[in-house]
Backbone:
């Protein structure tokens, strides 16, 4: 029996609404904003910003300035202590802990009941809907979903959040999910929410290796570790020997490009599909609606209003005024109480009708020490093409500048942990430098003639370096990500201290 045939119509019905995205962006997004403003009129934020008098996007943009997290923090800490009707109606009992801000503290993102219903679970349904449309032969519901999540470990004192749950977004989603959905997923909540990764990893392997897994969901770097451990326990070299019915990986959090060859080396590409999602602590924003086209479809009816700020400009554009090919900083207003919040992510617009985006990088994750303006999408692409050409594979990487001195020119230093190292490291450095020039014209200009900038260099990371560094920060786990780029050396120098031979 294949339950997928019975459930397919429920999911495909959703796509009739998605088809409206192509021609009704402005109408749909204005309606989303109106609903959120109406819902929050009696909140403290709504009263302070005159929501009763706001009837249009233009009035909203005039009344509410873009608001970074440090201005939200006092409101959110009051919400964590139990105050109601602050940024969103009622009391909020769940918060997603996210990476720190400029003041070094963690962010706590409200996870309201409305954000769960209108956005996070709404987006999860979209993922499956698109996949079933793309793969009519799917048997995804004939087995289990293996979902790799985080925990409720956090940096708050017990007294500060005794009546709320604070932790990774995935932990909140797993705990709040409809119990019926637990029938179709593994591991158990007990294992899924474990805090100690050194204990959680073997528990995940034990819970999954003898089950019928048809789909997996998580961050590519962390899931790779789990899959490798499963294969080692079963004594196989190909994952389908363990899970013959495995057919799709729903992945997000970091670019999949540097990991594709690693996954292809352990999973038969002819039997596997991959769909990217953009599901952050602040919201579920986009999902791939194709196996091969560039970009993810922006979910414009999911409890989020999107705005776009061109790089180097103070203008902020609504979604119906953006242009294909441009890169923008993403600003959101959402049913979790974040109003005109700059996410810190930049996106490239792949199409506008409907809106499809690709993630270009973080606004603070770049190298511009010499005017080269290198972003994560440049380094991901350069590394992927270099590995493909030279037959090597990368587990993780980060990069930072080495600054100019009175005796030396500046350059970029890459710290790379290889799964399959190159046979000739000097050739690898040369090809990577050439590929980065091809991906970024500013870097190419600074490299011209070795006048302003020397060729990049690669430091080989010892096995497990990035895990050791993450453990030292208290952030080792299935949802944690390595910062790819930094415009100074504070991250890479800290990591290098763990680079034991």
Residues:
């Amino acid at each position: 029996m294949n339950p997928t045939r019975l459930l397919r119509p429920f999911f495909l019905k959703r796509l009739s609404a998605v088809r409206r995205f192509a021609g009704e962006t402005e109408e749909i997004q204005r309606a989303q904003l109106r609903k959120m403003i109406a819902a929050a009129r009696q909140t403290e934020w709504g009263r302070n910003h005159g929501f009763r008098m706001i009837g249009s996007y233009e009035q909203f943009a005039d009344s509410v300035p873009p608001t970074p997290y440090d201005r939200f923090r006092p409101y959110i800490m009051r919400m964590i202590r139990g105050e109601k009707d602050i940024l969103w109606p009622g009391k909020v009992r769940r918060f997603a802990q996210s990476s720190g801000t400029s003041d070094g503290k963690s962010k706590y993102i409200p996870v309201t009941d409305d954000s769960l219903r209108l956005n996070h679970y709404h987006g999860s349904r979209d993922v499956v809907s698109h996949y079933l449309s793309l793969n009519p032969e799917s048997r995804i519901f004939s087995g289990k979903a293996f979902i790799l999540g985080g925990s409720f470990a956090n940096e708050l004192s017990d007294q500060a959040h005794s009546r709320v749950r604070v932790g990774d977004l995935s932990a909140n989603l797993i705990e709040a999910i409809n119990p019926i959905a637990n029938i179709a997923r593994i591991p158990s909540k007990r294992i899924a929410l474990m805090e100690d990764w050194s204990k959680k990893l073997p528990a995940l392997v034990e819970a999954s290796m003898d089950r019928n897994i048809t789909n997996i969901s998580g961050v590519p770097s962390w899931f790779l570790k789990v899959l490798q451990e499963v294969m080692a326990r079963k004594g196989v070299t190909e994952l389908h020997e363990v899970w013959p019915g495995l057919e799709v990986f729903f992945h997000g959090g970091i670019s999949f490009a540097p990991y594709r060859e690693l996954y292809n080396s352990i999973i038969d590409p002819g039997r596997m599909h991959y769909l990217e999602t953009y599901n952050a602590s602040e919201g579920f924003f986009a999902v791939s609606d194709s196996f091969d086209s560039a970009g993810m479809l922006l979910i414009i009816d999911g409890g989020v209003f999107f705005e776009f700020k061109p790089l180097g400009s103070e203008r902020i554009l609504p979604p119906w005024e953006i242009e294909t090919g441009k890169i923008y900083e993403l600003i959101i207003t959402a049913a979790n109480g974040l109003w005109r919040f700059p996410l810190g992510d930049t996106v490239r617009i792949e199409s506008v009708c409907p809106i499809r985006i690709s993630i270009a990088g973080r606004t603070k994750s770049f190298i511009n020490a010499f005017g080269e303006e290198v972003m994560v999408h440049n380094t991901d692409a350069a590394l992927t093409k270099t590995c493909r050409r030279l037959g090597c594979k990368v587990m993780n990487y980060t990069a930072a500048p080495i600054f100019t001195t009175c005796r030396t020119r500046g350059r970029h230093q890459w710290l790379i942990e290889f799964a399959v190292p190159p046979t000739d490291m000097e050739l690898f450095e040369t090809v990577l430098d050439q590929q980065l020039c091809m991906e970024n014209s500013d870097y190419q200009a600074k490299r011209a003639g070795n006048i302003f900038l020397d060729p990049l260099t690669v430091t080989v990371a010892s096995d497990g370096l990035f895990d050791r560094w993450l453990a030292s920060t208290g952030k080792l786990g299935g949802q944690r990500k390595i910062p790819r780029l930094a415009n100074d050396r504070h991250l890479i120098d800290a990591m290098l201290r763990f680079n034991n031979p």
User: Anything to note?
Assistant: The chain has a mean pLDDT of 90. Residues 213 and 325 are 38 Å apart (CA to CA). The chain has 17 helices and 19 strands. The first strand starts at residue 94 and ends at 98.
